């Protein structure tokens, strides 16, 4: 393993790092002048969009000043506001002013809809609300904050601007004002001159609605989205944004055009090298893990074979030398030898079966069989073994037949392996439950124990070849690491599925699902 990591680091240092260093050098070759030009250009565009926002803010504050002056004038308020706003500002649809119990609503003659006092009472902050108090605090500190919200009425979109009104000497009043306008008309009629002024022939300035890729207004007949260099939010129009770019190719692209191709090739090469190195390291690591598992398997199998062979040899020698004092003792020795030889046979059969399946030489029968009958037969044959091991068991079979297609002996081997595991890994609570049920066109067999359980991090690997948990109580149990791998392979051959639920200290549930044969 140490040699593996040494070679891996050598590969990284010798191949990947030089290419990364060269790519970094190419990036650094962009001159300071080019970087400064790019930065100045971006700042200039930001400043232009800022000026558009500032202009729109100034326009609205001019309207508010008109409303405030009209309220302080002796002239008829309605006539004054109507003349100064509605006549010269086609985007303004309605004006609302609330002062104590007095309310004023003025509607443009061009407006095709009108909003009532109920609408404003719902939309504007209540004088007793925290939001109203915040607006007053802003105003008292010299900042007249404008609340902006967009709403739809019919098939049209409107903008509601609300604010606390000031007196001529800029003191805070109890008046709450609101302006309803058409945002797109505001952009096209009121702000278009500003767009043209800042754009001249050098830039393209556009305004977009957030849910539409076509501009509401642009200083150019057509806009190439790739030429947009900077976008900014519209301060007063939450559903719109500003964009600015050049009529042709962006300056940034021109500045960096000479490096794009080289850097693209380098980055692609680095990516391929990185992927290749990753795949090589992963495959080597996988092979090394498999080699380690095989080595552990050989060690475990050697131990598994050595123990019964040693017992058989010892008892055979004792019997041969006639050192057994009684017939009962002889019978006990014979039983032990028979048990250990059966254990040897089981290990050898498991290894042979695994070898056949691993090489694709195992042939399975495809008979019509009843899962209930197989489970009942295996559990019946296993009852004596369970009792001698001190286990109690529950067998619950489906009331309906569970016809499936498969190899009876192979499926029996699956259940035997699961029962062996349940016995092997149960220590304090020796209870096993075997069930069959019918569900969702599946024949389901479950084996549940209350043993030591399997850690969450190892559950995905328990069905791999030669895998054995290397830490905890599971590591202390004997085994070859083939049992669950055989289970998985047999179930896969039967087009079934195996699932595991386990919690350390509480036990495990293995669920086997077979496709039901249609009656």
Automatic annotation (TrEMBL):
Superkingdom to which the source organism belongs: Bacteria
Keyword Membrane: yes
Histidine kinase domain: residues covered: 300-518
Gene Ontology MF, one: phosphorelay sensor kinase activity
InterPro entries in the record: BphY/WalK/GraS-like, HATPase_C_sf, HATPase_dom, His_kinase_dom, HisK_dim/P_dom, HisK_dim/P_sf, Sig_transdc_His_kin-like_C
GO cellular component: plasma membrane
Catalytic activity: ATP + protein L-histidine = ADP + protein N-phospho-L-histidine
Transmembrane parts of this sequence: 263-284
Gene Ontology annotations of biological process type: cellular response to phosphate starvation
EC number: 2.7.13.3
Keyword Transmembrane helix belongs to the record: yes
Enzyme class: transferase
UniProt entry keywords in alphabetical sequence: Kinase, Membrane, Phosphoprotein, Transferase, Transmembrane, Transmembrane helix, Two-component regulatory system
Protein known as: histidine kinase
Upper classification of the organism: Bacteria, Pseudomonadati, Bacteroidota, Cytophagia, Cytophagales
């Amino acid at each position: 393993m140490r040699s593996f990591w040494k070679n891996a680091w050598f590969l990284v240092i010798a191949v990947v790092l030089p290419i990364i260093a060269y790519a970094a050098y190419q990036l650094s070759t962009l001159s300071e002048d080019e970087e400064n030009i790019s930065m100045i250009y971006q700042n200039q565009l930001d400043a232009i969009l800022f000026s558009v926002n500032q202009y729109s803010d100034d326009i609205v504050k001019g309207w508010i000043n008109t409303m405030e002056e009209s309220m302080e004038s002796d002239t008829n308020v309605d006539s004054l506001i109507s003349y100064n706003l509605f006549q010269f500002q086609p985007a303004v649809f309605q004006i609302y002013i609330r002062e104590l119990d007095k309310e004023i609503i003025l509607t443009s003659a061009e407006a095709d809809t009108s909003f009532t006092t109920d609408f404003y009472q719902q939309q504007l902050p209540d004088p007793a609300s925290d939001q109203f108090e915040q607006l007053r605090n802003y105003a008292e500190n010299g900042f007249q904050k404008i609340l902006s919200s967009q709403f739809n009425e019919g098939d049209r979109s409107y903008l509601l601007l609300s604010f606390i009104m000031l007196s001529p000497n800029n003191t805070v009043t109890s008046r709450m004002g609101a302006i309803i306008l058409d945002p797109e008309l505001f952009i096209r009629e009121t702000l278009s001159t500003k767009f043209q002024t800042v754009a001249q022939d050098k830039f393209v300035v556009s305004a977009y609605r957030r849910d539409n890729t076509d501009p509401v207004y642009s200083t150019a007949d057509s806009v190439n989205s790739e030429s947009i260099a900077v976008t900014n939010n519209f301060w007063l129009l939450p559903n719109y944004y500003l964009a600015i770019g050049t009529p042709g190719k962006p300056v940034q692209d021109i500045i960096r055009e000479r490096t794009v191709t080289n850097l693209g090739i380098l980055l692609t090469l680095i990516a391929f090298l990185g992927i290749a190195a990753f795949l090589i390291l992963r495959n080597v690591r996988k092979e090394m893990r498999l080699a380690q598992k095989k080595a552990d398997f050989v060690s475990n199998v050697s131990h598994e074979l050595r123990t019964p062979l040693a017992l058989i040899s010892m008892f055979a020698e004792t019997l041969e030398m006639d050192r057994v004092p009684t017939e009962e003792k002889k019978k006990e020795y014979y039983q032990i030898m028979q048990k250990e030889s059966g254990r040897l046979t089981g290990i050898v059969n498991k290894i042979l079966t695994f070898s056949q399946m691993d090489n694709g030489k195992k042939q399975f029968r495809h008979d019509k069989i009843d899962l209930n009958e197989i489970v009942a037969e295996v559990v019946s044959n296993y009852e004596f073994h369970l009792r001698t091991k001190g286990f109690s068991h529950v067998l619950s079979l489906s009331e309906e037949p569970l016809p499936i297609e498969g190899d009876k002996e192979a499926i029996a081997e699956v259940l035997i392996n699961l029962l062996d595991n349940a016995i092997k890994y149960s220590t304090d609570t020796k209870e096993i439950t075997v069930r069959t049920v019918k569900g969702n066109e599946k024949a389901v067999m479950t084996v549940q124990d209350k043993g030591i359980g399997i850690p969450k991090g190892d559950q995905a690997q328990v069905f791999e070849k030669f895998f054995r948990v290397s830490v905890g109580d599971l590591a202390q149990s004997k085994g070859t690491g083939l049992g669950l791998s055989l289970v998985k392979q047999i179930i896969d051959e039967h087009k079934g599925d195996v699932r595991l639920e386990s919690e350390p200290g509480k036990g495990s549930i293995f669920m086997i699902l077979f496709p039901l044969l249609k009656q």
